[in-house]
Amino acid sequence: MSPPHRAVPGPCDPDDLVTGVVFAATYLGCTQLLSEKTPAKSVRTTQAQEAIRRVKAPDSESQSMSEVDLFISTQRIKVLSADTQEVMIDHPLQAITYITDIGDIVVLMARRRVSRPDSQDNAETSNQDQNNLQYKMICHVFDTEDAQFIAQSIGQAFSVAYQEFLRANGINPEDLSQKEYSKLLKNKDMYNDELAHFSKSENCKDVCIEKAKGEILGVVIVESGWGSILPTVIIANMMHAGPAEKSGCVNIGDQIMSVNSTSLVGLPLATCQNIIKGLKNESRVKMSIVSCPPVTSVLIRRPDLRHQLGFSVQNGVISSLMRGGIAERGGVRVGHRIIDINGQSVVTTPQKKMVHILSSAVGEVRTPQYVID
User: Fold this and answer.
1) HSE value, Cβ hemisphere, 13 Å, CA-based, for 260
2) Angle at Cα 257 formed by Cα 159 and Cα 339, nearest 5°?
């Protein structure tokens, strides 16, 4: 008999998610979109709204629909006909890239395969080529009264799947602090590098932040990244002298797994932001976090505008870098996320404005960054 799971916050019993839970829903249909690897939050929202616009018929028109059972487990997500139980759709859990609930509508997005330009048949590709790859994404649209529960259950399934991964490799989730298993991980196939990072006990911790009632926590959060094995939110900035910063327990770049026993895994950014805002009247906040690589500060010396910075940025992330350029000499690396430019926070700055700030900066350009790749 398998040992019980460590408590994983969510609407379902964690053990039930291993075998699978079922929600009744009405399947309205699906559509396919092309997407960048790391679209911005606004792009994701637009994609979900576009999927609904394509699939959902106007109120004045008849809607093609099917009554279905939505099966959610730590391995797969399936859509079965409510009448015949025939499998209509079947996705591995790790293929799910985004879930959002809008009223009674659920949009479930799954990555399919990469569309590569013909020029990328060569074994070697540039960083810019990799950034320009287009991902085919299938968007399923459901109508159900359980929209919010479904979104939360899928997020919870990711957390339970992580515990199952540890058990499969002989690791007891209850005893992570006493396990040394880096050698084990080295010889195992990972979903991606992030799972290896999550699997190191020194990167995972529970923290408690004390604050006054009525005081905000003092953090700004953004989404963790497209296709993350445990999609959640990242601390992108902290209020100076706020409770979070003063605690010394959390850092910019830390991923938040849960807050006061409420899992944030798989939840839309807006929902997570509302949960953080709802902590205002709490005097103690308990958080489960995964620590990120430390923030590094780089210095680019640019005499005048005639000197190119020598890098490209996409959604705040350095996507390509000119070898030997002033940015590389200053410490910039592909995969860094820019969080500040000369003392000005850019964590929520639109792409166009960030490019303008960078292109017009001269002299000593200081950009604190943290590594996300």
Assistant:
1) 15
2) 135
Give φ, ψ of 353 to 5 degrees: -70, -40
Output helix, strand, coil percentages for the chain, rounded to the nearest 5: 30, 35, 40
Share of the chain above pLDDT 90, in %: 25
Q: Using an 8 Å Cβ cutoff, are 289 and 207 in contact?
A: yes
Tokens coding 328:
């590389």
By DSSP bridging, strand 219-223 and strand 296-302 are unpaired
The closest alpha carbon to 294, from 337, 341, 358, 352, belongs to 337
Here the tokens at position 122 are: 């060569």
Helix (H, G, I), strand (E, B) or coil at 223: strand
Residue 172 contacts residue 3 (beta carbons within 8 Å): yes
Q: In 3-state terms, what secondary structure has residue 340? A: strand
Distance CA(220)–CA(346), nearest Å, equals 11
d(CA 291, CA 354): 26
Residue among 16, 290, 8 nearest 156 (CA): 8
The answer for residues whose C-beta is within 8 angstroms of residue 77's C-beta and 6 or more apart is 70, 71, 89, 90, 91, 93, 96, 108, 154
3-state class of 143 per DSSP? strand
User: Alpha helices, DSSP H only, in the chain?
Assistant: 14-19, 41-55, 127-131, 147-168, 182-186, 193-198, 243-247, 269-277, 326-330, 351-359
3-state secondary structure of 16: helix
- Note whether 335 and 370 are within 8 A (CB): no
| Per-residue pLDDT tens over the stretch 76-129 | 999 999 999 999 999 888 788 888 888 899 999 987 755 444 444 443 434 444
CB 293 within 8 A of CB 253: yes
Note the residue count of the chain. Answer: 373
Task: Specify the pTM.
Answer: 0.47
Residue 350 tokens read as 């639109």
CB-CB contact of 114 with 134 (8 Å):
yes
Among 125-134, 140-149, 340-349, 357-366, the range scoring the smallest mean pLDDT is 125-134
Q: Is the dihedral of CA 15, 20, 23, 24 positive or negative?
A: negative
